[in-house]
From TrEMBL:
One of its GO terms (biological process) is methylation. This is Ubiquinone/menaquinone biosynthesis methyltransferase. Keywords: Methyltransferase, Transferase, Ubiquinone. GO terms for molecular function: methyltransferase activity. Pfam families: Methyltransf_25 (PF13649). Gene3D superfamilies: Vaccinia Virus protein VP39. It comes from Salipiger pallidus. Residues 40-127 form the Methyltransferase domain. InterPro entries: Methyltransf_25, SAM-dependent_MTases_sf. PANTHER family: TRANS-ACONITATE 2-METHYLTRANSFERASE (PTHR43861:SF1), TRANS-ACONITATE 2-METHYLTRANSFERASE-RELATED (PTHR43861). The keyword Zinc does not apply.
Length: 236
């Protein structure tokens, strides 16, 4: 996937490329009762933050990370060393078999139903997918929420998301919202990166930085209403 150089520059060197925290991974592992010599894939692994947590939570597991962005794969390899096999690839074409496919905030690139149907062929018997995805908390959200999600018109409430999971032939094992602090920490890091890049930024870089600042500003207007849903789903 070819991205503008300015976008790559902005998102290089960040701890992670979207909202989330180690507690998300640890909750999923505990809730699913995972352990032992499992095969685990982080689809859309970014720079490897969640892979690092998976490695700590599942010390006997074989870990694979897949991302389309070579610069993020390089960062993840530096982070994980030999603990995980991290490669540039298409997360929509996983082979497996995996006992767990983890995907933080990236399934929307494939579409929920389409992505899960594809991943069902990469799951071992009894395997589980854990993914976080944008959701609305109600049918009547503040204007800032609509503005924040304007580039993702397919966003729906929890019930709509779970219907898409069911359409893919999966059943929801459990779910929980990702709201507030994980987003704040992510945006704090992004804001520091923006400030570091502003001196000497050319017009193209300045435009990318301005768009990122607008995203952060919109989040600050409704931090308790902008959410992901972290879903644990197993093939029915």
């Amino acid at each position: 996937m070819e991205l503008p150089a300015e976008f790559v520059t902005l998102y290089t060197g960040l701890d992670r490329q979207g909202p989330g925290e180690p507690q998300d991974v640890n909750w999923a592992v505990a809730r699913l009762g995972l352990g032992g010599g499992l095969r685990v894939c982080d689809a859309g692994c970014g720079s490897g933050a969640d892979l690092q947590t998976l490695a700590a939570a599942l010390p006997d597991a074989w870990l694979e990370g897949v991302d389309a962005m070579p610069h993020l794969v390089a960062e993840a390899r530096d982070r994980l060393g030999s603990r995980a096999d991290v490669r540039v690839g298409d997360m929509g074409a996983l082979e497996g078999p995996f006992d767990l496919i983890w995907c933080a905030g990236a399934l929307y690139f494939l579409g929920v139903t389409e992505g899960l149907r594809g991943w069902s062929r990469a799951l071992a018997p009894g395997g589980v997918v854990a993914f976080s995805h944008p959701v609305l908390l109600s049918d009547a959200e503040p204007e800032a929420v609509a503005a924040f999600w304007q580039e993702y018109p397919a966003i729906t409430r929890r019930e709509g998301l779970e219907a898409q999971v069911a359409q893919a032939g999966f059943e929801v094992v459990d779910r929980r919202h990702v709201i507030g602090l994980p987003w704040g920490r992510y945006y704090d890091g992004l804001a520091r990166r923006i400030e570091a890049l502003k001196p000497g930024a050319d017009a193209a870089m300045a435009a990318v930085l301005e768009a990122a600042e607008r995203e952060i500003s919109l989040w600050h207007k409704a931090p308790d209403r902008i959410a992901y849903l972290l879903v644990l789903a197993r093939a029915a």
